[in-house]
Amino acid sequence: MASRAGSRALHVLRCPRRLRSTAAAPQEQPGEAARPAPAGLSGLRGAPRPLPPPPAVHFGDPRAAFSSKSSAELLRGLVVLGLCALEPLVERNQQLMTLSRKLLGQQLFETLMKMTFYGHFVAGEDQEAIKPLIQRNRAFGVGSVLDYSVEEDLTTEEAERKEMENGEGAGWAPLCSRRLFSGADQREKQFRVHRGFGDRRGGVISARTYFYADEAKCDQHMDTFLRCIEASGGSSQDGFSAIKLTALGRPQFLLQFSEVLMKWRKFFHQMAAEQGKAGLAALETKLEVKKLQETLAKLGIATKAESHHWFTGENLGVSGTVDLLDWNSLIDSRTKLSKLLLVPNMKTGQLEPLLSRFTEEEDLQMKRMLQRMDVLAKRALEMGVRLMVDAEQTYFQPAISRLTLEMQRKFNTEKAIIFNTYQCYLKEAYDNMTVDLELSRREGWCFGAKLVRGAYMEQERNRAAQVGYEDPINPTYEKTSEMYHRCLDYVLEEIKHSRKANVMVASHNEDTVKFTLHRMAELGIHPSESSVYFGQLLGMCDQITFPLGQAGYPVYKYVPYGPVNEVLPYLSRRAQENKGFLKRAKQERVLLWSEFKRRLITGSLF
Ligand SMILES: Cc1cc2nc3c(=O)[nH]c(=O)nc-3n(C[C@H](O)[C@H](O)[C@H](O)COP(=O)(O)OP(=O)(O)OC[C@H]3O[C@@H](n4cnc5c(N)ncnc54)[C@H](O)[C@@H]3O)c2cc1C
């Protein structure tokens, strides 16, 4: 439930956004950027000191892009990116690696990999080995998001078998009302495991995949993440660490939880349609409580008297309307997480825990997953490290996002420690993000978001087409970019007005980065405030990362690390799935070559 302060704020927060925007805007002079004074000092010191105008960033300057690199590294970059542009080679990279391993022997093979692909895209084998690179990048204004990138080298058959064994719950059966959700007596197709997509590694760009083995393996993953957090804390003052929730528990739980959340939201939209409010943005959709009660009674879900207490909490129904956040709080205000999975029971009209049919062992598995998340978040808080929860497939993502939100509520009280990830290739991205942000406003915690376009497009589309549900992805690349910029704009406005939100623009797209810089300047968000971060993968788009870093913008590389042999399966897949992107890395190769030539001509190669 929201706090009292949250409920007081509710009235103000429900005012239209634009209105609040202008009302709350500080009086700024053109070219000045207001920096929030430290709490308690503003009154003593008077008006905040104006900051210098934001620094200019020159993305096309090869010298700025590669000044952190030795000439040997430039040459390696040229060779590696050049090879990555050769499609037949990328297609057959696995066979070629197996052959080279046979011909060269393990040791020579590892040396060759370190001199080429592994050396370019991976920071090193362990936390000690990656320190020099992290320190060097830091000296050039670039931080690190540590990402232990070991991936099990399973065959497709093994991956499918694991997924089928662990994806379906033995005792689970839905309790949803048939009248509420069409086809609700069956699991929704999207949230069922399908053998053909059991190997979740296919059609994914640059993302590691975890398969559930047992609880001990999940503990092992948690220990790895803990070491990552500790290394991030040890290596800088403002570190980030990335985690994936599919590594921390049985995916079955995420599937089922996602299904319930989606059904609950669908139910809300069905009720909105009944009231003639279909098609509005999530935050603009408000159900009239009276009509809602009538519909619930008509559907036989609850009599008016029975549903009365659903809408009489501290927040619910004060304005005679219920929005999606009020609706969601029906699930969580009366429960703790372990009892979260509630759906209306048709006979009683009451919310009942969906988990009641989990076996004892399954219930325990779910609790352990939540405990692991808690351990990680606590450690991150202690170490002053921010934790990014990666976004994954749409059939897991509602649960991942919701669990992350629960961590944010708990840990983001003073500043954004936990960051959720929003995939802008999703048709629902704007609704998802704005609803979460609105919740942070109402409850007074600090919103933290990483915005990405999304890594699972090909897999998502194939699965939706083959299994037979609506494609969750925007129809075109342009729509995805539009969505990205719309979401980004929304958070940037929030930062301007409350200075409580943080966002990471995780993209290699120069236009998106330029759009961000432009909007930051317009809104008076200065890079030194450290509320807008940028993120790119190691070995990719240094011409974006380093000029940003040197101009003083907080920018980070996702830094994969791990033993050569164990990182190679991930790297090999990444090369294949990124082949379109790598082919387009032409600009990077041109810049690398131009910097190499400059050093050669000026005699500064060494
Ligand atoms: C630091 C960092 C962290 C990341 N974390 C995550 C994460 O947690 N979860 C995750 O899913 N991804 C993550 N990614 C990957 C990211 O989602 C993108 O796949 C990748 O960055 C490419 O997008 P872009 O904006 O960099 O480049 P661009 O080349 O501008 O965009 C390519 C992307 O656009 C989208 N797209 C392409 N064609 C179409 C089309 N026809 N219709 C609709 N959309 C289309 C796809 O998402 C594609 O990946 C991360 C990336 C970075 C750099």
From TrEMBL:
Please tell me where this protein is predominantly located: mitochondrion
Query: Where do Low complexity bias regions lie?
Result: 23-48
The cofactor named in the record is: FAD
Does the keyword section mention Lipid biosynthesis? no
- State the EC number(s): 1.5.5.2
Q: From which residue to which does the signal peptide run?
A: none
Signal as a keyword of this entry, yes or no, is: no
What residue stretches are annotated with the Proline dehydrogenase domain? Answer: 305-583
Q: What are the annotated GO cellular component locations? A: mitochondrial matrix
Q: In which pathway does it act?
A: Amino-acid degradation; L-proline degradation into L-glutamate; L-glutamate from L-proline: step 1/2
| Top-level division of the source organism's lineage | Eukaryota
- Going by the record, the broad EC class of this enzyme is oxidoreductase
Q: Which reaction does it catalyse?
A: L-proline + a quinone = (S)-1-pyrroline-5-carboxylate + a quinol + H(+)
Segments for region (Disordered)? 18-58
General function of this protein = Converts proline to delta-1-pyrroline-5-carboxylate.
- Family of the protein in this entry: Belongs to the proline oxidase family.
Protein name in the entry: Proline dehydrogenase
Organism taxonomic ancestry: Eukaryota, Metazoa, Chordata, Craniata, Vertebrata
